[in-house]
TrEMBL record:
Sequence similarity: Belongs to the flavokinase family.
Protein's name according to its UniProt entry: Riboflavin kinase
Naturally occurring in which organism (per UniProt): Linderina pennispora
Enzyme class of the recorded protein, top EC level: transferase
Pathway: Cofactor biosynthesis; FMN biosynthesis; FMN from riboflavin (ATP route): step 1/1
Domain spans labelled Riboflavin kinase: 14-144
Entry's Gene Ontology molecular function annotations: ATP binding; metal ion binding; riboflavin kinase activity
Function: Catalyzes the phosphorylation of riboflavin (vitamin B2) to form flavin mononucleotide (FMN) coenzyme.
Top-rank lineage group of the source organism: Eukaryota
BP terms from Gene Ontology: FMN biosynthetic process; riboflavin biosynthetic process
Keyword Isomerase found: no
Length: 158
């Protein structure tokens, strides 16, 4: 939304970050690309319930790599998505790159570097989309910092 900070999180990732997770991209609810215009790569429920169970629900930023591609910036929604009234906690990764094809079944690695904001409910789809775009801008600016950029080259992504 208007007035949000362009840089969030500490200058250098602090414990518990970076949080590293990986899994096969699974089909989600089909809303990200189609309804929101912001496609997501969804992590399996097992990864959300194990590797990501100790962090609060909300929106995060970091780096992501789909097998065979480069490491790219990402934002991730972890939670219940109250606007859509999900019954399961999900991990939905928006890789900040335009892909021509889906990559369901591909191996996805993520490094979460910082928390952007808590999960919210919205009274309109437009307000949700506006906030997601603000999250993306915050991730773009925050990841330019040297300590965050270094994680992009971590051996985890090899």
């Amino acid at each position: 939304m208007a007035g949000r900070e362009l840089i969030v999180g500490p200058e250098t990732p602090e414990k518990p970050y970076p949080i590293l997770a990986e899994g096969e991209v699974v089909r989600g609810f089909g809303r990200g690309g189609k309804q929101l215009g912001i496609p997501t790569a969804n992590l399996p429920e097992s990864v959300v319930e194990s590797a990501l169970s100790e962090i609060p629900i909300g929106v995060y930023y970091g780096w992501a790599k789909v097998a065979g591609d480069s490491v790219r910036p990402m934002v991730m929604s972890l939670g219940w998505n109250p606007y859509f009234k999900n019954e399961k906690r999900s991990g939905e990764v928006h890789i900040m790159h335009k892909y021509d094809e889906d990559f369901y079944g591909s191996h996805l690695k993520i490094a979460i570097l910082a928390y952007i904001r808590p999960e919210k409910d919205y009274d309109s789809l437009d307000k949700l989309i506006e906030d997601i775009h603000a999250d993306i801008r915050a991730a773009e600016h925050s990841l330019k910092r040297e300590a965050h950029e270094r994680v992009r080259h971590d051996a985890f992504f090899d």
